[in-house]
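Consider the tokenized backbone below.
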């Protein structure tokens, strides 16, 4: 049976990959996006598919459509973009969640929320399991995003308890791949673009902070498995790649893979930048039989090829 599926933020990096796979799996897709950080280029190849529909809309305003399932991905995700208009970031997470939950409640349908590892803040437990409650500064520059996403999780669980809504909450850890915005300041896109242009590679702090990088195709597979898991399994569930690297290691790998002459330079560490991050994915392994398959080398190589094409 063909389902009609709403993807908010569908013109963004992750959303566009999700739209593509959902269409490939035989569904109809309605993509809603206000194009704040997303782009038509990400979905242009889907526009002549009769089962794909694009709506320019800001989810902080109500939306009335008839669908069978919702993936709520709308929200700027990189620090420079979410800090550009922090009030709008919180509105997108909180008012956007209320509107999408209201829509799901009216239609009595399942809704999945793209939450984030940022709900753990600068974590004091390593790796981070889902029961860890986090260490978030509520008044810092990252709070518009972190606290917005935490409040969205609260809303999801209250609609679930109060209105018996079917919910799924995933906590996504750093994901990379083709269609990342070349100027959104995230570390993988920054380093690749800098290396390809022969510019200095900018490491913030001493580069010993860690992240765990998941290739986009692996993540999308986990997301769809979570949506299709039994109704009594709400999450929250971590989705990410548990292989952990320092930012310095990432820089060196990208320099060597691109054969670049770029030099590494050190810049100040942004306020509240988490020192270490790595998902505990035991729950995803047990409940979804999911774990990432793509190595950092393979994923980076595909991503480098993408950036070579678009920055020409
Ligand atoms: P992205 O910026 O590429 O995509 C976000 C999309 O949402 C964009 O197309 C943007 O135009 C759209 N959008 C923003 N505000 C909107 C609004 N008010 N109404 C309608 N559309 C709006 O970022 P992404 O990396 O694809 O992230 C997608 C989702 O996944 C976000 O919710 C993000 O918080 C979450 N996430 C991503 C990562 C990651 O590593 N990529 C990690 C954790 C969580
Ligand atoms: N909403 C929406 N589309 C719908 C149904 C509701 O955008 O199809 C919005 C609506 O504007 C409302 C929000 O979702 O503000 C929350 O809806 P809910 O029914 O939970 O609350 P109420 O309407 O009682 O405020
Ligand atoms: N980072 C860096 N140089 C850059 C961009 C980012 O050293 O040009 C660092 C950043 O300070 C952080 C890590 O890389 O420690 C990951 O940053 P990103 O913005 O990609 O994701 P997040 O901090 O949200 O995990």
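A designed sequence for it:
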């Amino acid at each position: 049976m063909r389902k009609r599926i709403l993807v908010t933020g569908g013109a963004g990096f992750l959303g566009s990959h999700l739209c593509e796979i959902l269409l490939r799996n035989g569904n109809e897709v309605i993509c809603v996006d206000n194009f704040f950080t997303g782009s038509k280029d990400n979905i242009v190849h889907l526009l002549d598919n009769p089962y794909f529909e694009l709506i320019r809309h800001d989810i902080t305003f109500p939306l009335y459509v008839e669908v069978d399932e919702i993936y709520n991905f709308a929200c700027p995700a990189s620090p420079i973009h979410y800090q550009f208009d922090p009030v709008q970031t919180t509105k997108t997470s909180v008012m956007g969640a209320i509107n999408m939950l209201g829509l799901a409640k009216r239609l009595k349908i399942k809704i999945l929320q793209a939450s984030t590892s940022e709900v753990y803040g600068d974590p004091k437990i390593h790796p981070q399991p889902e029961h860890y409650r986090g260490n978030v500064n509520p008044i810092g520059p990252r709070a518009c995003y972190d606290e917005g996403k935490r409040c969205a999780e609260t809303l999801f669980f209250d609609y679930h308890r109060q209105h018996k809504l079917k919910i799924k909450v995933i906590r996504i850890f750093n994901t990379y791949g083709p269609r990342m915005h070349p100027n959104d300041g995230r570390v993988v896109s920054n380093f690749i673009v800098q290396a390809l242009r022969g510019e200095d590679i900018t490491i913030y702090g001493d580069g010993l902070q860690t992240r765990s990088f998941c290739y986009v195709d692996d993540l999308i597979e986990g997301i769809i498995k979570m949506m299709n898991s039994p109704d009594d399994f709400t999450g929250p569930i971590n989705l990410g790649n548990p292989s952990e690297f320092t930012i310095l290691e990432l820089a060196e790998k990208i320099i060597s893979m691109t054969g670049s002459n770029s030099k590494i330079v050190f810049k100040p560490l942004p306020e509240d930048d988490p020192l270490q991050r790595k998902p505990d994915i035991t729950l995803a392994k047990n409940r979804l039989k999911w774990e990432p398959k793509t190595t950092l080398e393979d994923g980076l190589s595909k991503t480098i090829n993408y950036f070579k094409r678009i920055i020409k």
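The longest strand covers residues 110-116.
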